[in-house]
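Collaborator request, handled under Task 6.
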Amino acid sequence: MEHEKNTIDLRLFASLAVHMPPEANRFPICAGTTVAQIVDGMHIPRSQAKLVFINGVRKELETSLKGGERVAIFPPLGGG
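Structure tokens returned to the collaborator:
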């Protein structure tokens, strides 16, 4: 199936939460979409999408998705 439609459970944290789309728990993607493409499509600067976790595992922005994943994106974290 070419460009099969799937959904992911998308979560944006801290300062990125303002970009959270409606129904983020069923965010539509095409199989093969990368996290970077989602970030770009939401007009989030890549420098602000520093930490990516897919199903609880740290991944890179260029990671491709199939559908069904839980995707969490965090901004750069400050320390004290």
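The cover message to the collaborator said: "Residues 35-41 form the longest helix (7 residues). Strands lie at 5-12, 27-30, 51-54, 57-59, 70-74. Please let us know whether this matches your experimental observations."
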